[in-house]
Specification:
Helix content: over 70%
Number of helices: 13
Structural class: mainly alpha
Mean pLDDT: 88
Oligomer: single chain
Shape: globular
């Protein structure tokens, strides 16, 4: 049964939690390497999603779903969470979070271009305007407003942040063929990625003598970037008759995130970051409001 009040409550809670994760990323990366952080987050999220599937009586679907398309689910799991989050966490390690987060937020614009290429979707006038606004905003953020210098604090960090948008968009393009229950499908990805992340962590050989605060921060990422928040967001979408209205809530997330970064970590939020982010969000809103076909795809983060 649809319940718009519940949908709004679930959606707002999910957005508020997602707004905190950029801060959690930076706090965790003070102690953990990106692959260590990823391994802990995947493990915590996997345990949570297993519990959810158990409570919903869906555990028996895991093996059947995987065996129906093993190569497909293997590819999904290696793409997300493994490759996507490893690249994303490394970009946060190299850049101030106030730069990495808005750059990553341009993934929905990347999705438009990739959907045209791989799904043969027509790029409409408003999509081109959104792309121009979005990537101009990206350039303003990356150069701190000095567009003509093309000098970046960390060229590799900027490149990785933009690469993460390609990986995330690619994941959603592959996911258009996924007919499995959403929670089951995501859990399969985490189950596949977990052993690979553990092997990479062992190969890296970094020490594990972390503080309790570090472990809590890494666990927080697993719960509130990947696990609990995903379930809340799905619950919001299932409870509403207006997917676009719920998905539009995500536009407030980056601005809350910047305020938290400034108040908790003490990062300097440059005016160029706010201008660039405003351009990215304007482009995304233009797409969302004028192109309903995107509402079903652009609903997660």
């Amino acid at each position: 049964m649809k319940n718009e009040k519940h949908a709004l409550a679930f959606g707002l809670l999910a957005v508020l939690l997602w707004s905190t994760v950029a801060t959690a990323f930076k706090l965790t990366l003070e102690e953990f390497t990106p692959i260590q952080m990823l391994s802990v987050a995947i493990f915590v999220s996997t345990v949570f999603l297993l519990l959810i599937c158990y409570l919903q009586g869906k555990l028996n679907r895991l093996v059947i779903t995987f065996l129906s398309q093993p190569k497909y689910y293997l590819a999904l799991g290696l793409l997300n969470p493994l490759a996507y989050y490893l690249i994303l966490f490394k970009s946060y390690d190299l850049l101030p979070a106030s730069q990495a987060q808005p750059l990553n937020y341009s993934w929905a614009i990347t999705l438009t271009l990739m959907a045209s290429l791989f799904l043969k979707q027509k790029i409409r006038k408003q999509d081109w305007i959104a792309c121009i606004l979005g990537y101009l905003g990206v350039l303003i953020i990356a150069t701190k407003g000095d567009l003509f210098s093309l000098e970046f604090d960390s060229p590799l960090g900027v490149a990785l942040a933009l690469l993460s948008t390609i990986l995330w968009a690619g994941y959603w393009i592959l996911n258009t063929k996924n007919k499995a229950d959403p929670v089951v499908g995501v859990l399969l990805g985490f189950l596949i990625a977990l052993p690979f992340s553990i092997v990479l962590t062992i190969y890296e050989g970094a020490a594990w003598d972390k503080t309790i605060q570090g472990w809590l921060a890494a666990s927080y990422v697993g719960l509130f970037e990947m696990g609990i928040t995903f379930v809340l967001w799905l619950s919001a979408l299932k409870a509403t008759d207006n997917t676009a209205r719920i998905s539009n809530l995500i536009f407030i997330s980056p601005f809350i995130s910047l305020m938290l970064l400034a108040s908790i970590i003490g990062e300097t939020i440059h005016s160029s970051t706010l201008i660039g982010l405003a351009m990215i969000v304007t482009g995304l809103m233009l797409q969302q409001l004028m192109n309903p076909r995107n509402a079903e795809v652009k609903t997660y983060k």
